[in-house]
Amino acid sequence: MPHFIFKEILSVTMILFAIIDILGAIPVIIQLRQRAGHIESEKASVAVLVLMVAFLFVGDELLSIIGLDISSFAIAGSIVIFIIALEMVLGVDFFKEEAPEAVSIVPLAFPLIAGAGTMTTLLSLKSQYQTQNIIVGIVLNTMFVYMVLKNVQWLEKLFGKTGLHILRKAFGVILLAIAIKLFRSNSGL
After folding, report:
1. pLDDT tens across 79-96, in order?
2. Is the pTM of this model over 0.85?
3. Closest CA relative to residue 124, chosen from 16, 10, 28
4. Considering only CA atoms, which of 124, 38, 115, 33 is closest in space to residue 77?
């Protein structure tokens, strides 16, 4: 019988919330919506949920096929998370990608929402938390992603440019701390 631990669920939910950074992605989502005219919230949210849960369960096997352990992947992931956090805090783009011509599962669900940082974080979390608590955190974050996607126009008006900028910086600092914690806990420092 699964044992749900509220503290673990809360921790996982907050870590995933920070790494997914759906609020910080609102400006990108707005740009995608303007280009395509419509965002398929339901389709994108289901894709995010399936991608994250699937990677949680088969990510280890994928790593073992290429000869990596979770700690090595977690350390590499902490470095990726650290760089993403630096982007958020400093306002610099280290990772440059072309903007897609149409909004679909590929640019929205992956890699924008459930990208490499999220997948790396899931495997790192698996080394520290119980699987059922991670799944609850994934579901809660997916529900929040859906609400944001459904209400992106309203949120744009509510936060304004300054509010979105502040949110992005604040979540960047949180991600920096998470990256350092993941690095330390998986490197033995």
Report:
1. 877 887 788 788 887 755
2. no
3. 16
4. 124
